[in-house]
Amino acid sequence: MKFFKILAIFSLFSIQTNAFFAQNFNSDSKYSGLELSERLFAELEKTNSGEAKKLPLSTAVFENFPYNIQLEFPAQDNPAQKTFVIALTQEDAWNKIDFVKELFDFVSENKFEFDVNFIFTAGDIRRIPGNEKTMGTEIFCQTMEGAQNLHALLLDFSATKKTRVTPGAEKNISPLYLTRPLCSSLDGESVDYRISGDIFISLYNLGILKSDARLSAFLSRDIPAVMLSMLSEKESYDEETSAIKNFLLDVRLPESGNWSRHYIPVKVHSRLFWITEGQTLTAITIFIALCIFILSDFEFIFRKKSRRLVKLKESALKSTYLIFLTAALITASLFLGQILIAAFQKAGTRNIALLFIIKTSVPFFILSLIYPLEIRIHKNLLPYIYEYILSLSALLNVFIFTSLDISLFFLFAFEFLILTLSRPAKRTAFLYVFMAIFFLPFVPLLYSILIYSDARKIFELVFCALDKNIFMGFALVPLGLLWLRILARVNSKARSTKSAVAYYLVACTASIVGIAVLSVFSISMLNRIFFKNVERNRPLARVEESSENTFSSVSILDSEYYGGKIRSIEISSEKIPERYAIFVQGESENPIYFSIYETSRENDRTEFLLPENPPQNLTVTYTPDFSDNSIITVEAYFLNGNPNQAKKEIFSFKAEGGEISEVRDEF
């Protein structure tokens, strides 16, 4: 232990840099990196409000890197030790310093039943992809993980069309006791805002909607939090400031564990209603009672009269296997659809909505092709049987998807109601109308997915694994059975199997043409109406690998210290770097025996966790594993005068038997 203490002290003093401040300016002459942290900290000290503290991003010396800043406003009486955190990035705090100071004054002048801490995080706004593990919010939440009675409001200025409330991230939902008072405060100040996900915020639980990395850092650690995004370009934030003040006065922080995650915001005109988890459970109970009443006509099976009805019921019961057979057939068809759209994608088709429509259309082509075989196997299969299994499949979906997420109950209950109302319809034209009405409940669902999901999330729905295709298959079963019912209706008009097949082929072709026209129209409407509401993300710089290392140089030196080996990686840059990444890949499971820097292992490589905006000159030391057979890779990233283009320089070294040599073209 004495050796490691001496080694830690030695390493601490050996990590020195020639440039104490990493001055980094962009084209807008805004500060970033360490200089931004230093200037913001100095500005906060002038406010005489609260107590400002520096929170390092690295477990080693943090003077060379940016750091988080915390400003504390303790409550006079806080027996429950509740803490409310207001989090902003340092870039937003610096650019909107008057907005921040007004909140300071308000908090210092009012009494709350909880402590109020402002946290200004560094490294959250990345200009090049990667390095998510060492952002300021992530590190702050790591230090607070497991803390009791901690709650948070995250603020930023990333909205471009409307002020936005984000109530979830990465399979987590913000608690209702934070979301509802925040929205009420915005309504009270007449702020024009939207809720990400709209009525389908439950899609956050399923990991479908786009997640904010900062909010995810809180929610993934069971720290209750909600996010408010204000317009990026606005002269005054008086309404938003007043709304935040009212929110702080109105919010009631419960004890830990009281966290309602299943609720639905419903906006009618300008008024917002909230369907809580308890109300949903009540609706489910009423729905079950209603279903029992609807299905109670099975009592006629036990009556001696109406033998024809009894036979129909018996045939219907025996045909329930068609639900699962159709689900399996649709699931297999979806996989075939993925193969088809992969070919379309290679041919140059990039419209994700078109690819999704093609994929979901394949099952109906397959059902249409197989139906003549169904005619030969079940010549006496009547439309009534399809009516029954159609309602049963819709009822089955209610319970399947409600078990997946309770908030989806209303969507599939509405679907069940529509399909139940379609049972008396006999004319083919009416069945087509109900088939169109069937899509109505899914329009807001598709809208939420298209508006609030990023391309990667939608891509995962189009090219998905078996489990998602199975759920999608069951979701399409009622529609597939409705299509079979239409075909059965066509068949009932024909006198022979041959004429039925011919008639069905003509009707099927006409229907497919109609669906194709409707799909093209739908895509056009999506592009014109829906996609114009999508808020585009700030693009990250595209990284290009450099063939020559012109901006930086790396050298590795070994030294002996009390019988142990200390390896120093010295990085020197002529230009201000955006990021350094250091990887060690060795024969052992952990090629780094000791280091004062935190590390992360992924696959067979161990990475030093270095914050963004490092100094130009940096030395990292560590003790290698005793085998000392490893490959050391250093990556240096620079914004090469273009905010949309970054340059990566790579250095590779091989350590073998105490000898270190640089490797060319190894990676």
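the 2nd protein, sequnce then structure:
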Amino acid sequence: MREKRYQIWPGMFASLVLSAVCGILVYRVTGFTYAIADDVIMRDIASGAFTGTPDGHLIFIQYALGFAVSRLYLLNQNVDWYGFILAGVLFLGLAAVLYRGLTAAKNLWWKAAYASIVLGLFGVAMVPHAAQFEWTISAAMLGSAALYLYVTAAEKVRTADGIFIWFFLVLTYCIRYDVFFMVLPGFGIVFLWRFLWRKEKKLSFRAGEMILPAMVFLTVGLVMLTEHFAYPGEGWREFRRFQNARSQVYDYSEVLLYETNPAFFQELGLDEHDVRNIRHYALYLVKGMDAEMMEQVSLEAERQNSLPGGFSEKLRRGMGLTVREFTASRYFAASIPAFLFLLGVLIFAALFEKGILFPLLFFLGAEGGLWLWLGYQGRLPERVAFSMYLVLLLGIAGAFYRLYLSAEGESEMAVLRGWKAGKTAIQSRRRKNGMVLAVCLFCMGAAAVQWVQVVSRSSGEPLNYQLFKEACKNHTDHFYFIETFMAEPLGGAMVTMNGDFRQNRCLTLGDWYSISPLDKKRFESLGITDVEQTIVTDPGAYLVVWEKEEPGFYETYFTARYPGSRMVLSEVREIEGRKYYLYQVQR
């Protein structure tokens, strides 16, 4: 028994080394880039660039993990810990999948083929998301890898496997709890399959299988309890109300036009300029903006955008959205391998283990039901759809791995049974080895093509306002206000070992963190009591427009609010070939 336990460590070490080499290669060749602005903001909160002090209140990520990340910035504030951790967990998931094959009782050539296929598939499906990562997909990779380990675990889950699965699931919950519940149905089905054991037509129960889910839910419960106490008080309760309403408006319903709803907005005390500000996400310029106002805007937008056909029409459109997302070509890197694994599972199940078809059917039904529900709700953005594909891919790949080992076992038994069966088995093995070699070459070739595409995309110019924001830190007597939608449409910040995470004086005019206690702490540390008054009265405050010579909605708002005032172009600043137009309100 001691020898078998020891044999795990070389494979575990090899999986970590291969995954680390892959991660270093991506970082050195393309770098890690934040795909969306939300991650950049959470990085700034954790690092102290938001409030001036590293803080664990990352809003979307659980406080237990946010607190741990923020403490790392206290150790070394130059390293982008948030970026390395969130990009790094993608490779941690890769290491888990490699670990399963590299610790199997197989020869070196078998393990080399397994590693080649896994690395090839990772290169095809995940390298683009590793080069430009976001926290939703990071959580999905961890959760899916945990599902793969659970599906492929031996009849009795090894202690090391149980620890990895527990850690991955808890970390998935900490990064994004929605993804945790996305992978939970698969775990529930596999748990029942393992817990309810049928032997000699008798149903028995494996009580030991209860330990792992019990530990997972106990730890998740503690994280939830920590989250509850980390956001106390009326300020955070109001912010949560605001956040729920804001998400509904901007992510799903869209802000209504003032021209078609003047009576509604006038009742809220909002004029056409206020509504335009809301549409531009310039929430700091909307007088009286609070949770109640956002809820009213959200409810009216949801009411007017509800489909006239009722439930049946919404279901039809939801199914249409699901089908479009499910068959979209941008997911082929994950959907085609998932389909091929499914085909292999069906063939192997028919030949060797028909009993696996029942949990597989339940798994596909649960995933399909979740797809339909998200489509019905209209909540299938690309990051969510791709996360669903990851769960599907690694769940089915786990079933394929189990059945493949069963098929190999049957082949080895045939060799032992006699000449005729053994000759047939050897011929079958040769054909299988040829097919495996072809699959290895195909996966590695496809990964090489994907790698070239990722490198070509990453060689472009830095995105949006990141260069400008970094330059702002050297002007401690100025404020630079930028429009939210123009500022960071894709994120754009690069993860770095030598960053500058001083408090940023380049500020948006509103975002998902508006009215939060965190936001109030930031303004206090910057000495801002009112954003609009700072813009109007502070001689060091600028409104910034990127690569445009007209101030846009800024001008119509401030000239209407302050008759006799005008927008004046004070400076044109050029940073690495990009021009930024700095305006001020002159009264």
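Confidence is low (pLDDT under 50) at residues 1-6. Residues 419-458 form the longest helix (40 residues).
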